[in-house]
Design brief:
alpha/beta; 8-stranded parallel beta sheet; 6-stranded mixed beta sheet; 31% helix; globular
Length: 516
């Protein structure tokens, strides 16, 4: 018997494998699991050079798979001021004063995760509060929840806010902008913020991907939004710089370019996997296509972005390219159209099943069709929580329809394959936050911790079924991609997993170890 490179003993190993749900120890040789079982069964794999870790009861899970993340957008935000730990407007001013010391006078200063309820003043700062610390740099601070930001006078000047007529521009009694922008008014500044250079983006993207690994994520379905991302990905793959496995999903307008530039570079860490077709928008801005008007906007139910004939042509092109068909469909009309598309295309059994992204407004009839056609659904549990707490889902849809908004438990009962992602950076990256959001759902849509974990492990692997032989569960012969947690998520009370942290992540060896 060839000795293992790594052995973990005395653990609580949740394998996500129904044939052996729990184990005590695992052995790793190379990048594969060579043994899974009891201490007694695994100890013979220990050799003179084997690295042995005693887990002392810590929990091991398969590496998390995030099936929906915008990596480069997240990378951009890593350079922003983190406002999660500010407790007053004075704290904000101190952070701004320190930042402007290290940037040129015309450089934008951006901040994220501002929570007015966490401030001593219990309100957002105004532009003059920001001007004190940064009179010459344009400043934009984004709130933790909702589409809200605060800008200073310089940013107001550059965005020509004074001349804009938008209800989202908050004004003082004299009619002057306070600096607080809401909803679509935030786009006035967002659209003029300079893009970072490709080199800057490459550097921050590497840091972003390392953060994924720190949270126990060993695979990510990277949703591409811009052409520059393809160049960054190409460089990451060419220089062997990916710290985790990437399943790339590109938009329709970049399909040909992606096939040309990236398909030749596929390896065990990178796969050009899917192409996403956006056929409607979102509930938050009432651009999702509904069969009946929005409850808070009479007569508005929005339309699909394409005619059916064009959608079928595009879907067939994706299938013929050898990529997974991913359809962004939020409203029930869009979901019905996604179903119609998959009925008309030439399904290729060698390609992962078509997948509906979001699938927000469902009905029993639609769920029956999704199961019948063997489609998968990708959801983001933290997005679901925000739809109710931030975007007023019940007001948008009414009590009758909101009952069927993201019905995860019902989909599982139908036997639909449901995977989960973060939608980072719009929502938190941490998969455990997603697990918590999924198990905190009220009434019939509440899922168990185990079901939530499945969405980030086995089910996520099955959405790209070519990977199911390698990922998603802890089994002998599979890739040694797993995470060690401080506690067992299934034993946590009050539906709270936020006290659990990642002790270390294993992916081709221990690639991250917590300092806690």
């Amino acid at each position: 018997m060839t000795p293992a490179d790594l052995v973990l003993l005395d653990g609580n190993i949740i394998t996500m494998n129904s044939k052996m749900p729990l184990a005590q120890a695992i052995a790793v040789r190379g990048n594969r699991l060579s043994c899974v079982g009891s201490n007694k069964e695994v100890k013979p794999h220990i050799g003179k050079k084997t690295h042995v870790i005693y887990l002392e009861g810590k929990t091991v899970l398969p590496g998390f798979i995030d099936t929906h993340a915008h990596v480069v957008d997240y990378a951009k935000m890593l350079t922003w001021l983190d406002l999660q730990k500010v407790f007053s407007i004075k704290d904000i001013q101190t952070l701004l004063s320190e930042r402007v010391k290290h940037v040129s006078e015309d450089q934008w200063v951006l901040g994220r995760a501002l929570n007015p309820e966490g401030l001593l003043e219990k309100q957002l700062p105004w532009r003059h509060d920001l001007d004190i610390s940064a009179p010459n740099n344009p400043v934009v601070l984004y709130c933790q929840t909702g589409q809200v930001c605060v800008v200073n006078s310089k940013a107001i000047e550059l965005a020509n806010i004074h001349q804009q007529n938008n209800l989202g521009i908050e004004r003082d009694p004299l009619g002057e902008p306070t600096g607080i922008l809401r909803d679509s008014a935030t786009n006035f500044v967002w659209n003029i913020i300079p893009e970072p250079t490709q080199q800057e983006l490459y550097k921050t993207t590497k840091l972003a991907l390392e953060n994924f690994v720190h949270l126990g994520i060993t695979s990510v379905h990277w949703i591409v939004l811009s052409e520059v991302e393809l160049l960054i990905i190409q460089k990451l793959v060419e220089t062997d710089s990916l710290p985790l496995r990437v399943y790339l999903i590109v938009p329709m307008n970049l399909l040909d370019l992606a096939l040309q530039k990236l398909k030749p570079f596929e390896n065990s860490f990178f796969k050009l996997g899917g192409c996403i077709l956006f056929i409607d928008g979102y509930l938050a801005d009432r651009t999702a296509a509904l069969s009946e008007p929005y409850s808070d906007s009479s007569g508005n139910q929005r339309k699909l972005f394409f005619q059916q004939k064009e959608m079928i042509t595009l879907a067939n092109k994706i299938q013929n390219s050898g990529l997974q068909l991913v359809i962004h469909a939020v409203g029930d009309t869009a979901i019905q159209e996604a179903i119609n598309i998959t009925r008309h295309i030439d399904r290729n059994p060698a390609i992962p099943r078509p997948r509906i992204e979001q699938a927000a407004v469902l009905t029993p009839q639609l769920m029956h069709c999704i199961k019948e056609l063997d489609l998968s659904v990708s959801v983001q549990p933290c997005v679901i929580a925000s739809e109710f707490s931030v975007w007023a889902a019940e007001k948008r849809l009414g009590k009758k329809r909101v009952r069927w908004l993201f019905p995860i438990k019902e989909m599982l009962n139908y036997g639909i394959l449901v995977s989960a992602g973060s939608d980072c950076p719009m929502e938190p990256l941490n998969p455990l936050f997603g697990v918590e959001a999924a198990v905190k759902r009220e009434s019939v849509q509440k899922v168990s911790v185990f079901e939530a974990l499945q969405m980030y492990t086995t089910s996520a692997a099955q959405t790209t079924f070519l990977d199911i032989v390698d990922k998603g569960s802890i089994e002998q012969g599979k890739l040694a991609d797993f995470v060690v947690l401080s506690d067992n998520p299934e034993s946590i009370t009050d539906d709270k997993t936020n006290g659990i942290f990642v002790c270390f992540t294993v992916l081709n060896g221990v690639v991250y170890c917590s300092k806690k």
